[in-house]
Amino acid sequence: MYEFIEFQNEGGIATITLNRPEVYNALNNEITFEMQDALKVCLRDASIRVIVLTGEGKAFCSGQDLKASSANPNRSFSDSIHKRYNPIIKGIRNMPKPVLCRLNGVAAGAGCSFALACDMIIASENATLIEVFVNIGLVLDSGSSYFLPRLLGSSKAFELATMGTKLSAKDAHSLGLVTEAVPENELDATLKKYTDFYASAPTKAIGLMKKMLNKSHGASLDEMLNYEAYCQDIAGSTADHKEGVQAFLEKRKPNFKGE
């Protein structure tokens, strides 16, 4: 189905794997359009309850494929960002389902942005994050200028952006960028705890909470109070809410179906 990514859907868990390991999963045109398509599949398929984004081999994603881009020196940076990268970031952030990053190795440049766009990052201790843009005289893109100051505050965001400081997974965890940083041989087992949880969770309620948290960045308290009430009406009409209440009354574990 795809040439540069692998896509699997099993047990409500979709896994998108960047698959150019020979170039550390660097981003050429084709892989970015394939990622966009895979995210659309995840959005449309109601059987998918949680999405995992990861990389094949030693790296998560090394960012833009500079060899490929140098072959077209007159390209428009803006057009490339709008057509290739921004739809991926929007696809992750607007996905009404959890998107988890399985950070198996280096995440650099746009690859770092992809990781930060995910709802949670489960990282190998061998993994690193680096906003490498400054090293080639470019600025942050793919949402990093949005995510970094919100996650870290202005001062630390400025340092990482302007100095290209490489963060280990452990340091990223201590700063709150990474949910868990574990030994490489424990990465999949740790990730499974989260994917198993979300694959059997009330997906619509979680999707609404994701929208609420996204909206809160630019909203007032009054606006969020009203939006909470609006979303609660929607959540309250779902089959999962009815199942949750029934399970509570019957003193059993709920069987949520994401409906």
CATH hierarchy class name of the largest domain: Alpha Beta
Count helical runs.
Answer: 11
| Molecular shape | globular
Strand order of the largest sheet: 1-2-3-4-6-9
Q: Specify the CATH homologous superfamily of the largest domain.
A: 2-enoyl-CoA Hydratase, Chain A, domain 1
- Report the uncertain regions: none
Largest sheet: 6 strands, mixed
Radius of gyration: 19 Å
Ends apart, CA distance between termini: 28 Å
Mean pLDDT: 96
Provide the helix percentage: 40-55%
CATH topology call of the largest domain: 2-enoyl-CoA Hydratase, Chain A, domain 1
Name the beta content range.
15-25%
The succession of helices and strands, N to C, reads: EEHEHHEEHEEHHEHEHHHH
**SS class:** alpha/beta
- How many domain regions? 2
CATH architecture of the largest domain: Alpha-Beta Complex
What is the strand tally? 9
Structure overview:
With 259 residues, the chain is an alpha/beta fold. The protein has two domains: 5-199, 2-enoyl-CoA Hydratase, Chain A, domain 1 (Alpha-Beta Complex); 203-249, Lyase 2-enoyl-coa Hydratase, Chain  A, domain 2, CATH 1.10.12.10. 49% of the residues lie in helices and 15% in strands. The protein is built from eleven helices and nine strands. It has helices at residues 29-44, 66-70, 77-93, 110-117, 144-152, 154-163, 169-175, 187-199, 203-216, 221-236, 239-249, and strands at 5-10, 13-18, 50-55, 99-103, 107-108, 120-124, 128-130, 166-168, 180-182. The strands form two sheets. Strands 1-2-3-4-6-9 form a six-stranded mixed beta sheet, with helices on both faces. Strands 5-7-8 form a three-stranded mixed beta sheet. The chain starts with a strand and ends in a 10-residue tail after the last helix.
